[in-house]
Write a structure and sequence with these properties.
Chain lengths: 364, 391
């Protein structure tokens, strides 16, 4: 076994939520995707059932091979050819970590530190994340357990503090273009979620596998209940047209907070929380990439490749795109939705079919 | 020993980033800006931007009584020109010994001439630059913005502070509008509304020749171009429709003594805009609910009975109606601008019809039939019932 640690269901919920939330917290990419109107908050709520549908194939696979890691179960299903598919998943996580590193750097250079070279943030964060990965799964999860409640509470606090500046008439009319674009929007939101793969990789290390289904429901519920108010405050404060033109809509909402004459300009605090949350996000993705990579190479320990992979991630994140504009093109709903679905839905569905038809299963 | 060495190394490494940041900026290397004024420059195509910069030494005694002697201000005023705002801001460092620092800026004044040509090009910088706050107040100067930024205020050392306080206390009369950059951009970009901004001008005292800043109503924009001004009463009419009246004084003639005035204080007000579309005929109902107190009367008659209160209420409603009528006449009929958000209301209630109306809403606006319904209520008569009578 590459990892000897075990994590509890509570830790799983918190880590998964943080990994799903952090990018959304600053970038809120859904303002510029379907439904393109003030019904975004409905899409956010409807993403809950769609999340469940989209995670089904991975969930079934993970449950069928609950003692095996992602790479091992692919090899059981496909035999030696599984290596190629396994390599694709290593790439997926490697690539994903680079994207998140780059987005962290882009945010920090765009807002608080315009004159600092972006490589400083990326390299330093990657270095610290490498240390966390060295310490293993339990360390990352414990860190998440400490910090996640603080971040979730701070987000709720933002909602409360901005409530008086909300103009809810910006959210009307409801369902202006009917239900179809709203559903499409919910689909885009759900398709961005890669948590199914997290589950597939981490399922051998989760303490009580019986509670996983409930934990997943809780995670998706928390996410829907977070995204929906985010959409409401962003569109409520700025109006739809303005929200679309902002680079970091939710961050701008935090900047607008002003209570009395004393409680204002708390955006620096927000950046602080966000960076800590992003660190957990990056560490988790980094860890998953390294673990899957070591598994693929049949190593006895994953630690020797931590720094090697980190170097690749840092350089990849620099070469990923020439600028933020470039990066956003890839991250827009037109590309990323289908790219993610290939890994989180299409491939697992095929594997599941092969496994069921070929009666592949592992006896413990 | 080895462990101790490691700990020492770790502490050294961790201490290294503490000594400073990459682009650290100390207080004494910054020019902290409290207000910006933007004008058209005499040179073709250039902007002339005036910065009001806080003098750090003036901050010490700004609120205490031993403040700087009257006439001196706590600010330095710089004017520089450039083709864009940021160009002008960077050019200003040629005169200032420090780099301009915007995040404390709370007031942005645009000159009338520039506003008439359209202020959308200016908004991009205010929207894009990370140092800018969208909660800065936006005002339009009658005349040059430079004069406003250059003006002194006798009570506070930093004139920008005075403007902010004036904006905040304007709810006592409701004859000015409170518009920040965010609000302005929101009204500019949303279909079915036109932006407004507070109007400020320099008033000269005839005796002392002193110039003072004063709010004189509202600047109205068609798209992003200044089209005209509303005076104070028209501004309150606008605020009635928008539901933004907080307080203020309404003067009516005394029902028993038609030559004397009675002052009614507004306690609270609400408004509701309801569009109705019946066979291509657009009608808008503006409902205003106002509550007031009897604040002062100049006549020597007893007004504190329910019959007189009824009459006062009728007169109060009539005044409110007239104020709304004034602003409708100007904005809706004359200029064809939707500063009331009637289009937004139609969008909300009739989303499908709005899709067809949207493109030529400004032309349709003057055809819209506006019905004003005012309900006025007088609650109390202050501390006395009958006025002091002179025998």
């Amino acid at each position: 076994m590459l990892e000897n640690g075990k994590i509890s269901n509570k830790q799983m919920i918190l880590i998964f939520v943080i990994c799903r939330l952090m990018l959304t917290m600053a970038y809120l990419p859904y303002v510029n995707s379907p439904p393109w109107n003030q019904d975004l908050w409905i899409s956010a709520i409807l993403s809950f059932p769609l999340h469940i549908i989209l995670i089904l194939p991975v969930y079934a696979l993970a449950m069928r091979f609950s003692k095996l890691s992602l790479i091992q179960s692919i090899e059981v299903i496909l035999g030696p050819c599984g290596k190629i598919l396994g390599a694709m998943y290593v790439w997926f996580f490697l690539h994903r970590t680079s994207i998140i590193l780059r987005e962290l750097g882009e945010f920090l250079t765009a807002v608080p530190y315009p004159e600092t070279p972006i490589i400083v943030f990326i390299a330093v964060t990657a270095l610290f994340a490498a240390y966390a990965v060295y310490q293993g799964l339990e360390t990352i999860c414990t860190l998440g357990e400490i910090i996640a409640p603080v971040i979730l509470a701070s987000v709720v606090l933002v909602f409360v503090m901005i409530a008086k500046d909300l103009d809810l008439s910006n959210l009307q009319p409801v369902l202006e273009d009917g239900l179809a674009p709203v559903l499409y929007g919910a689909f885009v939101i759900a398709a961005r979620t890669t948590l199914g793969l997290f589950l597939w990789i981490l399922i051998p290390f989760i303490n009580e596998s019986g509670k996983i289904r409930n934990s997943l429901l809780i995670i998706f519920l928390i996410f829907a209940l977070h995204l929906s108010p985010s959409a409401i405050v962003t569109i409520g404060v700025f109006g739809l047209e303005q929200a679309k033109s902002l680079d970091f809509p939710f961050f701008h909402v935090v900047r607008m907070i002003s209570i009395g004459d004393f409680l204002e300009r708390i955006d620096a605090l927000f950046v602080g929380f966000w960076v800590i949350g992003m660190f957990i996000d990056i560490s988790t993705h980094y860890y998953l990439a390294v673990l899957t990579g070591a598994d693929l190479l049949k190593l006895k320990d994953y630690r020797p490749i931590v720094l090697a992979m980190g170097t690749v991630m840092v350089s990849l994140s620099m070469f990923l795109a020439d600028s933020m504009v470039d990066l956003n093109e890839f991250l827009s709903y037109k590309t990323l939705t289908w790219y993610n679905l290939l890994f989180t839905f299409a491939i697992p569905l095929l594997l599941l079919l092969v496994a069921v038809v070929g009666k592949k299963r592992v006896d413990y | 020993m080895k462990k101790l060495g490691l700990i020492f190394l770790a502490i050294t490494i961790m201490a290294a980033p503490l000594i400073g940041c990459w682009s650290r900026r100390e207080l004494d290397t910054l020019s902290i800006i409290s207000a910006i004024g933007i004008d058209k420059s005499e040179e073709d195509g250039k902007l002339s931007v005036t910065f009001q910069i806080i003098k750090p030494s003036a901050l010490k005694g700004s609120s205490s009584s031993e403040a700087a002697p009257s006439g001196s201000t706590g600010v330095l005023v710089l004017t520089s020109t450039g083709y864009t705002i940021i160009d002008a801001a960077r050019n200003a460092t040629m005169q200032s010994d420090r780099k301009l620092f915007f995040p404390q800026n709370k007031v942005i004044v645009v000159g009338e001439e520039l506003a008439r040509e359209g202020i959308n090009p200016l908004l991009d910088f205010l929207n894009r630059d990370p140092e800018q706050r969208r909660s800065s107040w936006l005002l339009v100067a009658k005349g040059k913005a430079h004069d406003i930024i250059n003006a002194k205020h006798e009570q506070v050392n930093i004139p920008a502070e005075a403007i902010v306080n004036m904006i905040k206390s304007s709810s006592n009369t409701s004859t000015a509008v409170k518009v920040d950059i965010n609000e302005f951009i929101k009204n500019l970009t949303n279909p079915g509304s036109d932006p407004i901004a507070c109007r400020i001008e320099m008033i000269q005292d005839d005796k002392t020749k002193n110039q003072k800043m004063r709010f004189t109503g509202t600047s109205v924009f068609k798209r992003d171009k200044l089209i005209g001004f509303l005076d104070q009463y028209e501004t309150r009419g606008l605020n009635w429709v928008l539901g933004k009246v907080v307080s203020g004084i309404i003067l009516v003639k005394s029902p028993l003594d038609e030559n004397k005035d009675v002052a009614l204080e507004i306690i609270r007000a609400r408004s509701k805009i309801t569009p109705e579309i019946l066979n291509n005929d657009i009608k808008t109902i503006v409902e205003v609910d106002a509550e007031g107190n009897l604040a002062e009367q100049l006549s020597e008659v007893t007004l504190t009975n329910s019959e007189m209160f009824k009459k006062l209420e009728q007169r109060m409603a009539q005044v409110i109606k007239d104020e709304i009528q004034l602003v409708l006449e100007k904005a809706q009929k004359e200029w064809g601008v939707d500063i009331f958000g009637f289009g937004k209301a139609v969008h909300r209630k009739y989303p499908q019809v709005w899709k067809k109306l949207q493109s030529n809403w400004r032309e349709l606006l003057s055809e819209v039939n506006v019905e004003i319904k005012v309900k006025a209520k007088i609650r109390s008569s202050g501390l006395s019932t009958i006025p002091t009578g002179v025998r």
